[in-house]
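Figure 3 (text version): structure tokens given as input.
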């Protein structure tokens, strides 16, 4: 199926999100790049429900990158314990913040290739950062998005890592609205 003339599909997805999506999540309402980044990192391989329970307390304790730098890895592990993968998360968070402060002078780089250099930031997280923080309409292709697009477009998808399927990437990119706010709602 050709994606040309599929603007109605994007609008239908956005309409569904506006009616049923989790728009009241605290990280969606903030304009603070650090709070958004923290949520992106916490949501990796963890449910929204679980992150929602601990997010406010984490933001109060780790409200800025300096708070992470001043924390020991052990303190970070204790704060992240309830999320699973807490040792790995604590180590990566500490390394990421140190790199952002030292290499990027305290600002998050808005370059996909530079983001991939940050500890704990993979392809999906880099795309999400580009979209939600840098306001560049990058496609977010996770398992659920891949399932919807493959069914709607009649594309047999590669199992495993959908964000590496070039056909689905091309479809996701072509369907993504160009306006960042709409692209965020679409994904």
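Below: residues designed for each position.
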């Amino acid at each position: 199926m050709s994606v040309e003339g599929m603007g109605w599909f994007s609008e239908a997805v956005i309409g569904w999100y506006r009616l049923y999506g989790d728009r009241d999540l605290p990280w969606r309402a903030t304009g603070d790049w650090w709070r958004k980044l923290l949520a992106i990192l916490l949501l990796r391989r963890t449910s929204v429900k679980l992150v929602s329970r601990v997010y406010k307390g984490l933001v109060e304790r780790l409200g800025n990158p300096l708070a992470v730098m001043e924390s020991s890895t052990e303190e970070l592990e204790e704060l992240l314990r309830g999320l699973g993968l807490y040792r790995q998360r604590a180590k990566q968070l500490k390394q990421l913040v140190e790199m952002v402060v030292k290499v990027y002078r305290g600002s998050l780089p808005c370059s996909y290739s530079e983001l991939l250099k940050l500890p704990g930031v993979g392809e999906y997280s880099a795309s999400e950062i580009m979209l939600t923080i840098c306001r560049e309409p990058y496609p977010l292709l996770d398992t659920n998005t891949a399932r919807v697009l493959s069914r709607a477009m009649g594309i047999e998808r590669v199992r495993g890592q959908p964000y590496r399927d070039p056909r689905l990437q091309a479809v996701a990119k072509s369907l993504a609205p160009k306006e960042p706010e709409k692209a965020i709602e679409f994904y």
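The chain has a mean pLDDT of 89.
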